[in-house]
Task: inverse folding
């Protein structure tokens, strides 16, 4: 695929769904390909993640929402995160605080976000995040089979968590210039998205 793709390729390492992980040696060999530029890392192995970050050829994007803070502190460049659909401003703010070395403020923000990142995966994804987005944006809370919507009890608890986060962190001021963070590369004053664009 990388040989024929006209675009940069992002590896997706998610052993929880595939049953097998991309071993470190294999990933570092793949990093030699000029079109393979990044990895969405859901492996849950901090030593493996650090080895890929230290190698420096692949941009590491955290794919496990509950590990975003840890992976950013390790040197990950960002995340591809379900929770970013609900509070992209705070996820981009977390990225900025970590990379500016404001770890005390970053820890405070992460302490507020962490229960949400856990709750969103208590039931099969994307049910919980879709349910929360439906309530926030007045959308229909429905999914195609065999996917299922979130239970009423979990959906209610996620709303409580979002309410608590909103009360404690109503928002963070945007950066005055464009940057690549947890979201699309654009001027943050134009809003955020849950997509990630790679450095060229």
Result:
């Amino acid at each position: 695929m990388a040989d024929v793709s006209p675009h940069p390729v992002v590896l997706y390492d998610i052993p929880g769904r595939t049953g097998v992980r991309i071993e470190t040696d294999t990933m570092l060999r793949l990093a030699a390909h000029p079109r393979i530029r990044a990895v969405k890392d859901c492996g849950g192995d901090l030593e493996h993640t650090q080895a890929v970050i230290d190698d420096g050829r692949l941009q590491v994007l955290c794919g496990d929402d509950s590990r975003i803070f840890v992976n950013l502190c390790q040197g990950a460049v960002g995340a591809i995160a379900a929770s970013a659909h609900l509070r992209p401003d705070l996820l981009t703010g977390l990225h900025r605080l970590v990379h500016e070395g404001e770890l005390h403020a970053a820890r405070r923000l992460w302490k507020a976000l962490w229960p949400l990142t856990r709750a969103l995966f208590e039931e099969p994804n994307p049910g919980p995040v879709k349910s929360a987005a439906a309530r926030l944006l007045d959308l229909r809370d429905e999914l195609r089979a065999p996917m299922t919507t979130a239970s009423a009890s979990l959906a209610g608890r996620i709303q409580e968590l979002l309410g608590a986060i909103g009360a404690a962190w109503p928002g963070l001021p945007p950066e005055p210039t464009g940057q690549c963070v947890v979201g699309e590369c654009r001027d943050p004053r134009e809003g955020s998205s849950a997509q990630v664009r790679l450095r060229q």
Remarks:
- The beta strands are 9-13, 36-41, 59-62, 78-79.
